[in-house]
Amino acid sequence: MEKSTVVLVDATQYGSDPAIVRVIEREYPLVYVTKQDDLGRVYETQAAAGRVITCFDFDFPDIASLSVLSEAKQQFASVPMLMFTEQHSEALAVWALRTRIWDYFVKPVVDNSVTASLDRLNRLLTESSGRAPRRTISHKQPLPDDARFQKHRGEDKAVEVAAAYIDQHLAEKLMQTKIAELCGTNSYQLSRAFKRVYGITFQEYILRRRIEKATELLRNNSASVIDVCWAVGFHDASYFTKMFQRHTGMTPSGYRHKWMTSRKEATLPFQLSTGHLVKL
Fold first, then answer.
1. Tens digit of pLDDT for each residue in 15-41?
2. Terminal-residue alpha carbon distance, the chain
3. Does the model's pTM come out above 0.70?
4. What would be the CATH architecture of the domain defined by 5-143?
5. Under CATH, domain 150-263 is a member of which superfamily?
6. Looking at the chain, which residues constitute the CATH 1.10.10.60 domain(s)?
């Protein structure tokens, strides 16, 4: 039996599930696209070659990613679609059913179940091959309320990973694009996530962490200011001093002097006041 082509739409935040990719491509010709791709163009190309099945792979479905599926179903109602998701709720399953999704899977998937579903669908498409396609009317369904919050969970995870990486590599050159790639996102989304979580941009967060680390290191009197400057990722002493003063209101040397003075005063059992010894 001739196999239908499966179009796998990556609607995840961190990359499609390798297990799903493996089970599909083991049995069916696979075309892998992202949610930003023009699905219409992909369908036109594949339809010319034969039958098409579409699989949408989600991790944390949100309004934007679910809208891609909904709009695709509206525009290409006759194309059968399957849905895979990590985040599951009864409302989401009901939404998928009402959107006329052929099958709904919660990850991790069972290989045999996916294969069996694709085989049944492929058999139906084969039997109906050559017939005039039935006119299918698909009504757009309201997105489930809990989908409004799923994106933030994924973004929080990306921010957590990025923040840990920054703390471990403060002395190095930190490239936003590289860190975003390590977190499975892009620079714009990562900066937007930092703005939501911390109230500042990604670059501002790095600068703040470097200044905070510098204040810790300056309390060690054996480390010179220039040593501290390099240890926290600055390679220009004057720029370091400028940024440090902007965030703390004093120069690095001034901060060290004030901290050392306060430490000494805290260890004295007495202090002078109007010419007399006064016990603390």
1. 788 889 999 999 999 998 886 667 777
2. 92
3. no
4. 3-Layer(aba) Sandwich (3.40)
5. Homeodomain-like (1.10.10.60)
6. 150-263
